[in-house]
Amino acid sequence: MKKIKKVKHGSKIKLNELLADFLKKHNLVIFITVISAGLVAVILVISNILIQPEQFQSANSATTNVGSFDQATINKLNTLNPSDNNSQSLPSGRINPFAE
Predict the structure, then answer these.
(1) How far is Cα 79 from Cα 70, in angstroms, rounded to an integer?
(2) What is the band of 34 on the pLDDT scale with cuts at 50, 70, 90?
(3) Among residues 28, 31, 27, 9, which one has the least CA distance to residue 19?
(4) Is the pTM value of this prediction over 0.85?
(5) Does residue 79 belong to any structural domain of this protein?
């Protein structure tokens, strides 16, 4: 294990060496911290982009007409057979799994 060198006041060369030794010793911790902070920042930015504020959600939902059918679709639905009409014959010993 290396001993930390004593720094004399006013000696820039010794201070640079001390800083270089510190960076060499703790480079993995610094790297992981910087990468983790970057990932957290990216996740926060993406989540803010994807989640709309409430003011925009209420404006968008008021203009959207969800669940509306045109008359042609309503007529097609009315012509379908009701679910209580069991016109299909099943083989003997079988039951209809969709029967209510």
Answers:
(1) 15
(2) very high
(3) 27
(4) no
(5) no
Type of residue found at 66? V
For residue 75, being part of any structural domain is answered with: no
Domains held by the chain: number: 1
Structural domain range at position 35: 8-50
pLDDT at 99 over 70: yes
As a dihedral over the C-alpha atoms of residue 16, residue 22, residue 23, residue 28, rounded to 10 degrees, the angle is 180
CA R_g for the chain:
36
Find how far residue 47's CA is from the centre of its chain: 7
- Sign of the CA dihedral 27, 28, 34, 37? negative
DSSP 53: P
* 16 in a structural domain: yes
Backbone region of residue 95 per phi and psi (left: phi > 0; alpha: psi in -120 to 50; beta: other values): beta
> Is 21 inside a domain boundary?
yes
Pair of tokens at residue 55: 């003011």
